[in-house]
Design brief:
By secondary structure, this protein is of the alpha+beta class. The chain has helices at about 25-35, 40-55, 60-70, 75-90, 105-120, 140-155, 205-210, 210-235, 240-260, 275-300, 315, and strands at about 60, 90-95, 100-105, 130-135, 160, 165-170, 190-195. Helix 2 (about 40-55) packs across helix 9, helix 8 packs antiparallel against helix 9 (about 240-260) and helix 8 packs across helix 10 (about 275-300).
């Protein structure tokens, strides 16, 4: 069953690779990318849902989703298994209409995607006042501490020990919702502190709390890999809608994988040559180059008899600082 969650190197379909008018250079790039690092079905579906489906209401017929995922080598069985598990884990809710199933985001699933939206598509603020958020979880049970750690990492916290978590405080940030969970509320202490400059301070411990060197290396690999293909799109704005959607999805999927481990530290705490800003700029540029055609492909894949794709919401149009008008 585990193998079903991966793209088989021998079964990458030709659907997106021989689209009418497709650039052969991009075709080869897609083939190599899917073969070299086959994405997990569930993880890629989460990317597609957050990047493409959520702005259009967050609901889709299962048969249409299967069709949408085919160009990535994700077969029908893998899609069905992944969607079932996402529903079981509270991300999605199913509605049956005859023999057909329609899946929509639950309230908790929508919250998770809203959190991801802020991290992926919005540039972090440049200013920082030197204040830190601290979470002290000494009294949280070992069983709950793992879930707490995962949620705090997603919210940008680093670890200074098994029970101490820290992040630079940014105006408007709120404590992660897990802090109100039963068994954690009242046991984990959340506080703030102002750090002084110099050795032995929280700022000095940044590399201990977050592995910035490893993260920078991952950003540079991301830039090298996707920087080659974006030049093809810069040189020619007539790429097929299918290619625009496939490459955009792979771009956001890989960016999300790196970003999940990025605490989005203020510039004052980062190395001068930090590549995170360049990675954000590459995603922004590619999105602006391709969003019209990618949306056209999405609409064609999800259209049903008498049912058109909902218009994208306002948050979608503000991604990466604002997309060009259609």
């Amino acid at each position: 069953m585990r193998q079903a969650a991966y793209v088989s190197r021998s079964t990458v379909p030709a659907t997106a690779l021989h689209a009418s008018g497709a650039d052969p250079v991009v075709t080869r790039w897609v083939r190599r990318t899917l073969a070299a690092d086959p994405p997990r079905a569930r993880s890629l579906i989460v990317t597609v849902w957050g990047d493409a489906l959520s702005p259009h209401g967050g609901a889709v017929w299962l048969a249409r989703l299967i069709r949408l995922m085919a160009p990535f080598g994700i077969n029908e069985r893998s899609v069905r298994t992944s969607v079932f598990r996402l529903a079981r884990d509270g991300w999605l809710a199913a509605t049956a209409v005859g023999r057909m199933s329609r899946y929509a985001l639950t309230r908790e699933g929508a919250r998770r995607f809203d959190d991801a939206h802020r991290r992926i598509y919005t540039r972090p603020p440049e200013d920082w006042g030197g204040t830190w958020d601290l979470v002290l979880a000494d009294r949280v049970t070992t069983a709950l501490r793992s879930a707490l750690r995962d949620e705090l990492r997603w919210a940008g916290f680093g670890e200074l020990g098994a029970t101490t978590f820290v992040r630079p405080r940014v105006a408007g940030q709120t404590p992660p919702s897990i802090m109100a969970a039963r068994g954690i509320a009242g046991r984990a202490i959340t506080t703030q502190t102002v750090d002084a400059a110099g050795p032995g301070t929280l700022a000095d411990a940044s590399n201990e709390a977050w592995n910035l060197r490893s993260l920078a290396a991952d950003y540079r690999r991301f830039l090298q890999h996707f920087g080659t293909v974006i030049e093809r799109f810069r040189a020619d704005d007539e790429h097929s809608p299918e290619h625009c959607f496939v490459v955009r999805t792979l771009l956001i999927h890989e960016y999300r994988r790196v970003l999940l481990r990025d605490p989005m530290l203020p510039a004052a705490l980062l190395p001068i040559d930090w590549p995170g800003a360049a990675a954000y700029a590459l995603c922004r540029d590619f999105y602006r180059l391709t969003h019209r055609r990618a949306e056209r492909h999405l609409a064609a894949m999800l259209a049903s008899d008498g049912e058109a794709l909902q218009p994208a919401n306002a948050a979608f149009r503000m991604r990466f600082g604002g997309l060009p008008a259609a």
